[in-house]
Amino acid sequence: MINVGIVGGTGYTGVELLRLLANHPDVDVKVITSRSEEGIHVADMFPNLRGHYDLRFSVPDVDTLSDCDVVFFATPHGVAMSMAPELVERGVRIIDLGADFRIKDVELWTQWYKLEHTCPDLVEMAVYGLPEVNREQIKGAQLIACPGCYPTATQLGFLPLLENKLIDHRRLIADCKSGVSGAGRGASVGALMCETSESMKAYGVAGHRHLPEIRQGLSNAAQRPVGLTFVPHLTPMIRGIHSTLYATLKDPKDGLQALFEERYKDEPFVDVMPAGSHPETRSVKGANTCRISVFRPQNDDTVVVLSVIDNLVKGAAGQAIQNMNIMFGLKETSGLSFVGLMP
Ligand SMILES: NC(=O)C1=CN([C@@H]2O[C@H](COP(=O)(O)OP(=O)(O)OC[C@H]3O[C@@H](n4cnc5c(N)ncnc54)[C@H](OP(=O)(O)O)[C@@H]3O)[C@@H](O)[C@H]2O)C=CC1
Ligand SMILES: CC(=O)N[C@@H](CCC(=O)OP(=O)(O)O)C(=O)O
What we know:
single chain; Dihydrodipicolinate Reductase, domain 2; 13 strands; Rossmann fold; alpha/beta; 6-stranded parallel sheet; 31% helix; binds NADPH dihydro-nicotinamide-adenine-dinucleotide phosphate; globular; 2 domains; 343 residues
């Protein structure tokens, strides 16, 4: 069995890790941390876990976490980098769901996250945990930087087009919608029901911290720096990311459907929908799946890609477990065979 520790067990991605790992045949969750709920039984806090765990929240502590084979950080940025150096030194594997190790250019990270990075050497050794791109490097990794939710949906949608140099890489547009759970469980006025239901708004148009992360991934795929306009929106749903992606084809012609099907034919968690389909976020709710459709409206030179995920699953906890499975040589789909919830 793989002994698991989770730092940040009271947040939305932390409890999602617990939900998914409850069904994982090869995992034993040994440590779950919370500073605010120390001593509370996890099932008293999250009744969906009753009967699945006999665990109490404890405060984060490197010595206790060192007994684990792998530690997931489901914490705000800045937390993983404060504990990672010691854990890495003690041979523990780390999967960070936050942003501490995602951006290779540490100065750029500091600019967007407004924090000094305390372990740039670990940024260098970290592998960006998008299995559809980095599966081989993930196998040998000690430290995984899990992609953000918007970056996962957006990169998976653009990859086949950029890798094959089919689009103008200088003018990409990602028009993305998120459910409110993307903002985390911490109380804030902006996340209140009266503020979010029956309304929708864009935010971060002038610059969102996922912009440099998405640009990094897309530039790697294109093998040149890309130009990207990224506009996130908050929508009145709990879970889900819907990315509508636009680009201009260099040589407009048929074959995009086949291109996407070929790119993802061996990917267990990317589902290219039949031509003409419009994927719905509810079809991936609770599932580690990205559903994608590709269109060339009116046979013109614009390509439109629709890409949907559950922000808490393929956008966070599910993808983190997918990475763990690959790192430990398990079946990649182990513990992740949930289907989406309809309705
Ligand atoms: N929500 C989402 O859809 C996604 C989130 N992410 C990223 O995953 C991470 C977690 O997100 P989410 O679950 O939404 O966040 P939440 O705000 O819901 O939860 C944060 C968790 O971290 C713990 N925590 C906060 N500060 C510290 C600290 N200084 N030291 C130790 N533990 C701390 C909190 O518990 P306590 O304060 O009791 O210790 C809590 O359990 C973030 O980096 C987020 O950006 C990534 C993809 C999607
Ligand atoms: C709706 C909402 O507020 N979403 C969050 C992003 C989600 C997230 O978790 O950010 P990381 O993936 O970088 O950790 C935001 O826009 O800040």
